[in-house]
Amino acid sequence: MAKLGDWLEPHPHGILVKPIDAWIDPSIPVARALVTHGHADHARGGHEAVWATPETLAIMDARYGPQAGNSVAYGETIRMGEVDIGYVPAGHVLGSAQIVLDYRGERIVVSGDYKRRSDPTCTPFEPVKCDVFVTEATFGLPVFRHPDTGDEIDKLIAALHANPDRCVVVGAYALGKAQRVIAELRERGHEAPIYIHGALQRLCDLYVEHGVRLGDLIPVGDTRKAEMAGHVVMCPPGALNDRWSRRLPDPITAMASGWMRVRQRAVQKNVELPLILSDHADWDELTTTLTEIAPKEVWVTHGREDALVHWCMTRQIKARALALVGFEDEDD
Fold first, then answer.
1. How far apart are CA 116 and CA 285, in angstroms?
2. Beta-bridge partner residues of 275
3. Which of 120, 139, 224, 304 is most buried as measured by Cβ atoms within 10 A of its Cβ?
């Protein structure tokens, strides 16, 4: 008797959909790639053909040059051989999708990365009933319970108002996190110009082209130091303690990441203002999602697999960990 989902074959470099010889989020060039979203541990260049949402294809074009892309919109279903393939929102970053695979009466959903929190920069996660659910576990431990997003943004605004002669420089990943912090600030009524590192410009422009409101963004470039006092400055995390930051007016160093829950990480990175803001599901979001979807099996990847597998087993849900190549940390 065939095992549930035996037509999907996990490998360290991706998941093979055997009936159609296509790979989900392959980390090496392949003939057919089904891509969930644009982060580098899921989307690589060099594939002969790529299927992804229009937004993800635009991100891949911006990062890797023109792709042999095939656009699949949210809610659209395409057919390859005997496999029906649909893309539904994952709520992770712009264009992020879960890939829904239907084959001979079985449904498998490969979620990629996802979150359940509201985010003004991307379409909310859509739960899909299925036989097998492939879930991430980046924050798959009960200690990880992310605080209210608005409260974290209010901390940033308060620090800014309390230090009008300084700037607050926020380290945030170039794809997704930087744009979300900016959009969340706008949602809280902060309409002042925000200064950005040159490495963020291209993807911020792409988000604006896709209808995300980011407001007035000014490249740090040759801006005079005094002009940035009393303002938010956004940069990649690697620039926080780089020579680049010396051009800023007495900066308060902040970082937006789910890992800021771990105090030692903030200390190691010399972060004065840790902002616990993640684009991944926390423990409660992971377990709530599994309860809501109620799959027959759960396959766990990218993170703390053991705790989530144990949670499933105590609830009579068959579960196993997949050894896929990826980043434990939030990427990009």
1. 6
2. 256
3. 139
Inter-helix orientation angle 305-313/283-293, to 10°? 40
Residues of the chain with pLDDT under 70: 1, 324-332
Instruction: Provide the H-helix boundaries in the chain.
Output: 54-64, 149-162, 177-187, 198-209, 263-268, 283-293, 305-313
Superfamily (CATH) of domain 8-143+280-321: Ribonuclease Z/Hydroxyacylglutathione hydrolase-like (3.60.15.10)
The confidence score (pLDDT) of residue 325 equals 55
**Residues 6+ away with beta carbon under 8 Å from 278:** 115, 138, 139, 146, 257, 258, 330
Residues 8, 34: Cα–Cα separation, whole Å: 13
Q: Where are the domains of the chain?
A: 8-143+280-321, 149-275
Which residue is listed with tokens 């599994």? 290
Find the helix or strand (DSSP H, E) in which 295 lies.
none
| Residue 54, C-beta contacts closer than 8 angstroms, at least 6 positions apart | 71, 73, 95
Which one, of 226, 222, 231, lies nearest residue 249 by Cα? 226
The pTM score is 0.94
Q: Which helix (H) or strand (E) holds 110?
A: strand 106-110
Distances (CA, A) of 331 to 68, 97, 176: 24, 16, 10
For the record, the structure tokens of 118 come out as 């509201």
Q: Report which of 303, 233, 260 is spatially closest to residue 147, judged by C-alpha positions.
A: 260
